[in-house]
Amino acid sequence: MIDGKRNGKVAFITGANRGLGLETARELGKQGIVVILGARDPEKGEAAAAKLRDEGVTAEGLGFDVTKSQDHQKAYEYFAKNYDRLDILVNNAGVLKESQAGSGPNQTSAVPLEILRETFETNFFAPVALTQKLLPVIRKAPAGRIVNVSSILGSLTLHSNPNSPIYAFKTFAYDASKAALNAFTIHLAHELRDSKIKVNSAHPGWVKTEMGGPNAPMEPSEGGKTSAQLATVADDGPNGGFLHLGQPLPW
Ligand SMILES: NC(=O)c1ccc[n+]([C@@H]2O[C@H](COP(=O)([O-])OP(=O)(O)OC[C@H]3O[C@@H](n4cnc5c(N)ncnc54)[C@H](OP(=O)(O)O)[C@@H]3O)[C@@H](O)[C@H]2O)c1
């Protein structure tokens, strides 16, 4: 266990060895929150945590594959035993497996079911199962926060509007998985509405990461801001929302 009392909060970020997960961990860590970096390759997770520690952040890596239920149990035991609570869960790990991502033609009618299933496994079933497993320790925190890292590409309203900026970006498996994740946000937030826990969906922006690609307009250093904001949202802040940098997005 590492010192969990710096500002009294501990956060778990999945897929935090690189990309937006690492940036979110950095943002939260700089606020004095202890950050635990989930990474399916433990060495990469530990290397990322070491980088943050060099920057003054209290960070630790945890070998964690979001699609493995035994890893969900491992995470539950880690937080129950070491902290007896979990203040912040950021369901960040995600995949985009469709090759036409970004600019290619719409291939919805030909998407292999395997791609659809694999995408849903990581982007939808895994965060649902992990959240269910960790909820008992999140309930023990004074004001738990759950952030589901979604995407503007999960917006059915924008996808169906020919004038929207994402109208041409039809990556069916990815988009549908994020729409399903948004449904989870709404439903869980409703169930927990009388508790101190808040559940929100984040759209980080289109960011230069391995997933976002080199043409994305936002720098990685900006990419963790929305998730970090929702992870630390005030008690009178949104619950069951879908936001980008404080602005609500249409579902
Ligand atoms: N970049 C964007 O423009 C953008 C826009 C909207 C939403 N998002 C969302 O933001 C989140 C992070 O995206 P990113 O841009 O940072 O992508 P990225 O650079 O491709 O990083 C993805 C992260 O997820 C991890 N991951 C994937 N499958 C995993 C698994 N089964 N178990 C554990 N970790 C797993 C990867 O680990 P490995 O290193 O082991 O592969 C990596 O750490 C995703 O949910 C994505 O959908 C991104």
Structure, explained:
The chain is α/β, with parallel strands linked by helices. It is built from eight helices and eight strands. Helix 1 crosses helix 8. The site of NADP nicotinamide-adenine-dinucleotide phosphate has 28 residues, from helix 1.
Short description:
The chain has 251 residues and is α/β, with parallel strands linked by helices.
Summarize the helices and strands and which ones pair or pack.
Elements: E1 10-13, H1 19-30, E2 34-39, H2 42-54, E3 59-63, H3 69-82, E4 88-91, H4 113-139, E5 145-149, H5 156-159, H6 172-191, E6 198-202, H7 220-223, H8 225-231, E7 242-244, E8 247-248
Parallel strand pairs: 1-2, 1-4, 2-3, 4-5, 5-6, 6-7
Antiparallel strand pairs: 7-8
Helix pairs in contact: 1-8, 3-4, 4-6
Bound molecules: NADP nicotinamide-adenine-dinucleotide phosphate.
Please name the fourth-level CATH homologous superfamily. NAD(P)-binding Rossmann-like Domain
Which cofactor or ligand species appear?
Answer: NADP nicotinamide-adenine-dinucleotide phosphate
Give me the CATH fold name: Rossmann fold
Q: How much strand?
A: 5-15%
State the major sheet.
Answer: 8 strands, mixed
| Order of SSEs | EHEHEHEHEHHEHHEE
| CATH class group | Alpha Beta
Q: Pairing-aware structural class of the strands and helices?
A: alpha/beta
For the terminal residues, how far apart are their CA atoms? 39 Å
Low-pLDDT windows of residues: none
Shape: globular
Known CATH architecture: 3-Layer(aba) Sandwich
Number of helices: 8
Provide the helix percentage: 40-55%
